[in-house]
Design a protein that fits this description.
147 residues, alpha/beta, Rossmann fold, 2 domains, three-stranded parallel sheet, 6 helices
Length: 147
């Protein structure tokens, strides 16, 4: 789900068959339409807004799972009795990047592993604030910092 062409086009490159640009109730209705009324087995909410978690809960089928990925911008989640009675599992966590750095960094630096298409802008250390601003303003998907 999304309405940023850079992100949704990348999603299609990675295999997305459908992209839902609608938000809120309209987005949930579109997902239900695409899944013959059932909803998704799993919904990921990836460091989005409160509306994103509400939509994730709305699109997941009864008995499904909503996973929060990363450190969210909000602290509350709408797990009221209606959500609980749908038997939805809520899970998630931060990315333990430090656990992988020693193993992966040499391969990245040697070019054996390419970080991927998600990096659509490269900046130096002096421009880190600009990089974060670009991501927040949706002008960049992810910014790669070079030394």
């Amino acid at each position: 789900m999304g309405n940023n062409p850079g992100r949704t086009d990348l999603g299609r490159q990675f295999g997305a068959t459908d992209v839902v640009a609608e938000r809120g109730d309209a987005g949930a209705e579109k997902v239900r339409e695409l899944t013959a009324g059932d909803g998704t087995h799993v919904a990921l909410e990836c460091v989005g807004t409160e509306q994103a978690i509400q939509t994730a809960i709305a699109v997941v089928r009864d008995g499904g799972t909503v996973s929060r990925v990363g450190v969210s911008q909000y602290t509350t989640v709408p797990m009221d009795m209606g959500t609980i009675m749908r038997n939805i599992t809520l899970t998630g966590g931060v990315c333990p990047a430090r656990a992988y750095i020693e193993e992966l960094m040499p391969d990245i630096l040697d070019g054996r592993i390419r970080p991927g298409k998600v990096f659509d802008r490269t900046i130096d250390l002096d421009h880190v604030p600009d990089g974060y601003r670009a991501m927040a303003d949706r002008d960049a998907i992810k910014v790669q910092i070079t030394l």
